[in-house]
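Late entry, evening session. Most of the bench is empty. Finally got around to the prediction I had been postponing all week. Sequence below, unchanged from the version circulated by S.P.
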Amino acid sequence: MAKLSLFDRRKRRVRTALRARAAGKPRLSVHRSGKHIYAQVIDDAAGKTLVSASTLDKDVKGKTGATREVAAAVGKTLAERAKKAGVSAVVFDRGGFLFHGRVKALADAAREGGLEF
């Protein structure tokens, strides 16, 4: 087996810990690139994405680009869509990304929007 990168090792460690405490809740997964940020609520039992939001969506309020304000707008939009879909509690999956900056801004905005995690 090939040696995993630090990012992949962190991602695997985070997902393993999530499975232990998920208790049937959907997973809020975040992906961050240089230009964009993506978030989706996934039902792992059914293997389906329930709702998603990203900086590529037309109705995400705010400018495009890699800023905390834009990430917060994505978090708020995701929380609104999740509430419409009947999801109120999730487990937060930061993947291999550290919990600061844009990832933290998205999480805080999703909490303000009504998601519990």
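Two things to note before I forget:
The chain has one domain: 26-112.
Residues 26-112 form a domain with the Nucleotidyltransferase; domain 5 fold (CATH 3.30.420.100).
Will write this up properly tomorrow.
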